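Dataset card, provenance and construction

Sequences and ligand SMILES were collected as paired inputs. For each pair, a complete structure of the chain with the small molecule in place was predicted and serialized as structure tokens. The example below shows a pair involving magnesium ion. Curators did not alter the output after generation; any descriptive sentences attached to a record were derived from the structure itself.
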Amino acid sequence: MINPMLEFVQVFREFETERGRLAAVEGISLSAAAGEIVALVGPSGCGKTTLLNLAAGILRPTRGRVVLTPNARLAYAFQEPRLLPWKTVEENISFVQEGLLPAGEAAAARRRILEETGLAEFRRAYPRELSGGMKQRLELARALAVRPRLLLLDEPFRSLDGATRQELHALLQSEHGREGFSALLVTHDPEEAVLLADRVVVLSPRPARILKEVVLATPRKRRLLNRALVSSSLERIEGLLSSAG
Ligand SMILES: Nc1ncnc2c1ncn2[C@@H]1O[C@H](COP(=O)(O)OP(=O)(O)OP(=O)(O)O)[C@@H](O)[C@H]1O
Ligand SMILES: [Mg+2]
């Protein structure tokens, strides 16, 4: 791949625990091109969040290398929202934009994303006043609001009802269309992966190894409109997950 936005080269990660060394990630080589959305699917506890933490530089590999395009702005929507309880919804967003975007551009991005995530009428509410799904939406809104070049998303749609989930899928799609970021999208849901990604990386149970990469050739817009287009890829991924688990 020419100039990937993000590249993992033979990455291993182990943790020291009271019960000894625990291998979480084993020999992962993976890249995301500019504008590409790569989904990571795999069973619970296999090492998906560890991979995002490695991409974000929060963790270092035990062996191997993680290479990012220099100066590419990165945003990370964590699995557990990391909201500041003493700041309002809007302040939680403006806080992460500080120093990254000029004030006018930040305000415009904030307004758009508050509208699109359905949080506009709660802009002055505090995190304790939000439902679990709303906190999750705010975590996603915050990541999008910095206009990242590389977006790390850890199960951003997990505890949402079907309709809200579809709205947010459309939001990710439209933001990707206008901003063209690269993304690593972690999800438990193979259907979400085949609808939203360009490529799906299927991971083994811990330690995470790559079982298969499935390329989605049909344009994302058509897949979102006609889910039948993804049924064969979906079956392959579900088959891999169930035989590996
Ligand atoms: N800081 C840490 N110290 C020790 N062990 C860790 C640490 N972080 C993760 N692990 C272990 O690494 C393994 C992978 O964890 P990780 O959070 O990456 O899984 P996951 O695929 O994101 O799971 P889930 O789908 O449940 O979110 C687990 O066995 C976990 O206990
Ligand atoms: Mg996780």
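Derived descriptions for this record:
The pocket of adenosine-5'-triphosphate (ligand 1) is lined by residues 15, 17, 22, 24, 44-50, 79, 206 (CB under 6 Å).
The first helix runs from residue 48 to 56.
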